[in-house]
Amino acid sequence: MNLFQDTLSMPREVMRRDRVFDFMIPADNPRLDISHNTILYLEDVSVSFDGFKAINDLNLYIDAGELRCIIGPNGAGKTTMMDIITGKTRPDTGTVYFGQRIDLLTLSEPEIANQGIGRKFQKPTVFENQSVLCNLELSMAGDKRVWPTFTARLSGEQRDRIGEVLESIGLTTERDLRAGALSHGQKQWLEIGMLLMQNPKLLLVDEPVAGMTHQEMDRTAELLRSLAGERSVVVVEHDMDFVRSIANRVTVLHQGSVLAEGSMEQVQNDPRVVEVYLGGDAC
Amino acid sequence: MFLKQILAGDRGGQTLLALLAVITVLVPILNLAVPEGSPLHLSTYTLTLTGKYLTYALLAVAVDLVWGYLGILSLGHAAFFALGGYAMGMYLMRQIGDRGVYGNPDLPDFMVFLDWQELPWFWYGFDQFWFAALMVMLVPGLVAFAFGWFAFRSRVTGVYLSIITQALTYALMLAFFRNEMGFGGNNGLTDFKEILGFNLQADTTRVALFVASAVALGLGYVACRAIVTSRLGRVSLAIRDAEARTRFIGYRVEHVKLAIFTFSAVLAGIAGALYVPQVGIINPGEFSPLNSIELVIWVAVGGRATLYGAVVGAILVNYAKTTFTGIMPEAWLFALGGLFVVVTLFLPRGVTGLLRRKEASA
């Protein structure tokens, strides 16, 4: 009798009607939660390539709406850090959260992009064979699966949005030009524009002013400053003048972990920073 | 309306479709209505040869779609062509019925010869045209899907992918050479009698097949053009030029590649199915890696990423091949190789690139 009941209890358990099976619950896709005013958490992150520790126990927090500059000597792990946030590289240990609830380590690159993290590469990469307009259209936030992409048409609203972005990156007159024909600085702006089309909450910008003239630099600084506030912007840059001109807070990376953090002045006067980095710059 | 939209600014495509429309009307008249002695008469030989070129052209369009627009250099597209051809060949084999040499109503001759007692399961259904027509698209499509699923997901790109596609077609060739596979071994499938009840040797059937090839090429062209002009087409250009960037703006690159690659394989399969009844044979030689490479040369000669250039290239190179192999068969491969070198060095945008340059400067 007992055995009989036992055997019955299993199907009963399976057939219970007040419960939903795990596999029936759609994958949890939490919305970005920044109620604690921090948009990005990197905690105890380490990654090594062939024994070389590119990132070593890195802890970094980015506030919502802030413009943060990250500096550091070559090989400090700045680009690797970006790779980890955008899903290109997986860390060996540590956690990376976007807002309170989105675990970036479980998502693929396109998923991370669609969650609202945009990335500008060190070398400007735009689609050179297509017009400026097409470049922006392709990057627009929206359904990016194969069939919806095939049937997609630009709506008036979307055209307006592209127009706005063209305005803010100053390429309105170049909209029908092939992206490959733009100057180096214009390509950088176009790439930033492409990020804006994605409506990101967090922008990662890798060396935006490399190879720019002074006027172009000033415009870029203005552009980046105007972007912060509504979204968070993280800028990795070598050019100290440029960093000084835009940043409220600066983080110094060295050998894969945070060496110092604070305002530009605090950081500049930190003896450790002077030793590893700014020391070279001063002379 | 739809046609107008997708052909806007595509001079070559407009010309191509107009030409196709003209020949689908004119060729049947010249062959069937004009009497044999007349200088205007089109011989059935020429008709079938041209029909064959049209199927090649469709195949070249399929290759240009993945190579020109998506940047995947497939050196195995002839495999999908041959798979479609085999599916059609199996239907044609079943149509022979008891008129084969051995007179067996159920088994094709080669099975009787191999002393097989019953039809293998994978031959079931091929006595029905609709089933065969379905398989013509399904088999190449599924093979391409399975292949692409693994290759694109593991992010195999560039020359490595090309080498794997070569291996794919080579492996299929070796498999189809085996008698135990049940596809006629190295003799392949041949001795076809009729299609849908019409005699394959009759001029009217030949004309119908020719017209079907022209229509298929036209529709295939329009379908590819529809893809290329859509946002999906621009995404594929983006993948070709900057794959990582495309991924970071949120597109699933491997899904786009898989969809377009599979579609292209289906087109190649249809081309193969129209090819087989016109030439009257399909054998494992069609899987030969050389075929796939030749096919890429057609596209290169015609001009990449134009679609109509692929048509021009396929017809031009094959016409040259027919002529050359008639005069000096042993020189053909040298001529082909020379052609490829010349095109790569001096005409990177192919023959149609010359026309476009004129257009641009005018």
Class based on secondary structure composition and strand pairing of chain A? alpha/beta
Shape of chain A: globular
Radius of gyration of chain A: 23 Å
What is the CATH superfamily classification of chain A? Answer: P-loop containing nucleotide triphosphate hydrolases
Number of helices of chain B: 15
User: Oligomer, anyone?
Assistant: heterodimer
Question: Residue share in helices of chain A?
Answer: 25-40%
So what's the CATH class of chain A? Alpha Beta
- Total strands of chain A: the figure is 10
Instruction: Please report the number of helical segments of chain A.
Output: 11
Broad shape of chain B: globular
The low-confidence parts of chain B are none
- Cα end-to-end separation of chain B: 29 Å
Main sheet of chain B: which strands, in order across?
A: 1-4
Structural class of chain B: mainly alpha
Query: What CATH architecture label of chain A applies?
Result: 3-Layer(aba) Sandwich
Number of strands of chain B: 4
Domains of chain B (count): 1
pLDDT under 50 segments of chain A (min length 5)? Answer: none
List keywords for this structure.
heterodimer; A: about 280 residues; alpha/beta; six-stranded mixed sheet; four-stranded antiparallel sheet; about 20% strand; B: about 350 residues; mainly alpha; two-stranded antiparallel sheet; globular
Overview of this structure, please?
The complex is a heterodimer of chains A (283) and B (362). Chain A is an alpha/beta fold. Chain A has one domain: Rossmann fold, CATH 3.40.50. Chain A has 11 helices and 10 strands. Chain A has a 6-stranded mixed beta sheet, sandwiched between helices. Chain A has a 4-stranded antiparallel beta sheet with strand order 2-1-4-5, with helices on one face. Chain B has 362 residues and is mainly α. Chain B has one domain. The two termini of chain B are 29 Å apart. The chains are: A alpha/beta (283), B mainly alpha (362). Chains A and B meet through helix 3, helix 4 and helix 5 of A and helix 9, helix 10 and helix 11 of B.
